[in-house]
Amino acid sequence: MNHPHVPNLEVEKHTEVPFETLGLDPRILKGIHDLGFIRPTPIQARAIPPILAKRDLIGCAQTGTGKTAAFVLPILHRLLQGKSARNVRALIVSPTREIASQTIDHLNALSKYVHLTGAAIYGGVPMQPQIRALQHGLDIISATPGRLLDHIWSARISFANLEIFVLDEVDRMLDMGFLPDIKKIISLLPHKRQNIVFSATMPQEILKLVNEILVNPLTVQIGQRSQAAVGIRHAVYPVSKHLKTELLDRLLRMEGMTSALVFTRTKHLADRLRQKLRDKGFRVSVMHGGRSQNQRVQALESFREGHSQVLVATDIAARGIDIQDISHVINFDIPATPEDYVHRIGRTGRVDATGDAFSLMDRSEEGMIKNIERVLKQSLPRVTLPNFDYKKSSPAPTAHQSHHYSHQHKQSRHRFR
Asked: I need a labelling partner for 7 at 20 to 30 A (CA). Which of 135, 210, 228, 240 fits?
C-alpha cells in the first residue's frame, strides 16, 4: 500500500515471538505473565521495539488488536529507565472518557510491580478528585481534550518533564470535532518529546496533523485500512423498519446469544429500545452521551459481569468498550459510515476470538450497506430468519399518535406558507 505522505511504512506479518524478546523491563514482564499473556499481538510485536527506541510512530490497527498495550508497555519501560519527577512524564489523549479510563485500567493491570502513578482525566465527573491526584504528582495522564484543557488553563498541570505524547483513536477525535483542542494542547507541550499516534483510519486531515508534529515517523500497519477484524461473521437481515424490534427480539432468543451489544443511531431510540426489550423480559442496560458518567460505568459493569444480557448503545460505545466475551454485535440502525461499522463490530471478535455481527437493514439503508461492502471489499450475506413474518403490516397509529401527527402536520404547513 502506497502512503506518499506517511514515510517509513512497515506492514509485516506477525511472527510468533514471546514478550521476553522485546526488551521490556523484567518487572513489566512479570506483570504481563501474571495476567496470563505469553506472546504479543501483531501490533504489539511491531510497535513496541521502535517506541522503546524513542522513534515517533504511527500505529494503524483496528480496535480489538491490543493496541493500548502496544503503547502502554513501552511507556512504562521508558519511564522506569528515567529519573522520577513530580510533573507529568507521559500524556495520552483519547476521544472519550471510557477510552481514557480503560487506558489507565490497562496501565494499572500491567504495572503491578512498577511504582509509577497514573490517573484518568475526563469530564462529566467532579474535578476535585482529579485535582487531588494532580497535586500529589502523576507520571502518566490519560485524558480527554476538554477536561485536560480545563486543568491546563487553571495551571494544575506542568509539562516541563513531558517525555512521551500519545494521540489515541485520533480519527475518532477528528469525527467528534476535537481537532482545534488537540492543536491547542500540542502548542503547550515541550518541543522535544516522543510522539505516538494510533488511528484505525488515516483521513487527509490526520495525515496533515501527523506530518506537522511527528519527526521522521515509522508507520506500522496491521491489516488494511477500514478492514473488519478477522474472525467476525457478518450477516445482514433485510427487514421493514417497523419490524426491526420484533426481529431483534427473535434474534436475542437464539441459541448462543450469550451477550449482545446493540447499536442505535440516537440516544432517544436507545432509551426506547431498552424499555421495549425490558418489557419483553430481557435484562438490558443502556449507554449513551445523555447518561451521566456513573450511569455509563454502571451499565458497562452490569454488562461485563453478565447481569445484563443486552447493552443498547450509541456510537459513543463503539470505541469505549473493552469486554472480551461479547458474542454478538447487532446494528439496529446501520451506521452512517463504513468506518463506524468497523469500529462497532470490532467489539466482538476481539484479538483472536470469533464473533457475529448482525445488521438489521430497512430499504432506506441499502445504500449504506453497499458503501460498507465497497470499503470492506466483500459482500455481506443477506439472511432471513425462518418462520418470521416479514410481510406483517405496520400497526395502525393510536388516537394519541394520530393527533400528534395531525398537530405536527399543521405546524409544518404553517411554517412553510
From this structure: 228
